[in-house]
Amino acid sequence: MQRTVKEILFAKPTLEGAGVRLKRVFGYHDIPRFDPFLLLDHFGSQNPEDYLLGFPWHPHRGIETVTYMLTGEVDHGDSLGNKGVIRSGDVQWMTAGSGIIHQEMPQRYHGFLQGFQLWVNLPAKHKMMTPRYRGLTKDDIPIVESQEATIKVISGTLDDVQGPVRDLIVDVDYFDITIPAGKTFSRRTKKGYTTATYVREGNGVVANHLVEPLQCVLLTDGDSVTIQAQDTLQLLFISGKPLHEPIAWGGPIVMNTQQQLDEAFQELDTGTFIKQSRSVKPSTEFYST
Fold first, then answer.
1. Closest of 36, 101, 32 to residue 242, by C-alpha
2. Is residue 278 part of a domain?
3. How far apart are the C-alpha atoms of 109 and 73, rounded to whole Å?
4. Which CATH number belongs to the domain containing residue 143 in this structure?
5. Is position 86 within any domain?
6. Which of 76, 98, 119, 126 has the greatest count of CB atoms below 10 A from its CB?
């Protein structure tokens, strides 16, 4: 059964972190329609003043954050002791679990700095799991090429090609797809999974609906989807198994009950939030309950 269009959303300008200008594709006000996904941000600018203030030290619990850089560089550091640079084409898949504090600081880039951050919810039984961090370079990400499309497989499987992010807590397909002008791309999808596409460049037709840049298409259930490109069409494709669990969301922390949320912020105040041996004190200026 072909998926059809359930809803089309427009990415909206917003400020995050210490003053980063970005576009929110979906977020707090769109739950639980995107379950297991919580948030998708599209950041990018040719003006360094739009992003250099970055995302100083802040906490997460109960979720995974997936940062995908198209162009540019972001310095990363966290309470586990991880340090590094997310460069053009790289992916950072961070499982906050019981608690992690990190910072992501975009670096001055001579050109159009651009990337995405996706939040994946964790199920109740894994909310307090041990945090983990996976950094992938562009060379780690396989590419499936055909006359119909070029697909970067970040997670999930396409044409027997498996993405490098494995041992996932929540089953997620995450692809970056480029379809040449005039071509049609068809993809089998997992029935029962929440599935959406986000157009980052170009115009086309998704499930018989015209789409344009900065539009997110949430699809109905089904086992396949068809996408046609009018001109070169570049889009993100995400599909995940919904959790169907209650959500208590406060700033960068997502739990199942208000009591759990209150406990998390109490632990931040008392310095007991991080359960591992290394910790970094967050700046409370950049998050809210």
1. 36
2. no
3. 7
4. 2.60.120.10
5. yes
6. 119
**What are the CA-CA distances from residue 177 to residues 136, 184, 200, 250 (Å)?**
18, 12, 10, 32
pLDDT in tens, 56-95: 999 999 999 999 999 999 999 999 999 999 999 999 999 9
Tokens 């609906």 identify what position?
Answer: 209
C-alpha count within 13 angstroms, C-beta hemisphere, residue 244? 3
Quote the tokens at residue 204.
Answer: 């086309």
CB 62 within 8 A of CB 120: no
Q: What confidence tens digit (pLDDT) does each residue in 149-168 have?
A: 999 999 999 989 999 998 99
Residue range of the domain that includes 94:
5-240
Give yes or no for a contact between 107 and 69, defined as CB atoms under 8 angstroms apart: no
* pTM as predicted: 0.95
Residue type, 27: G
Residue 34 lies in a domain: yes
Asked if 185 contacts 149 with a C-beta cutoff of 8 angstroms, the reply is yes
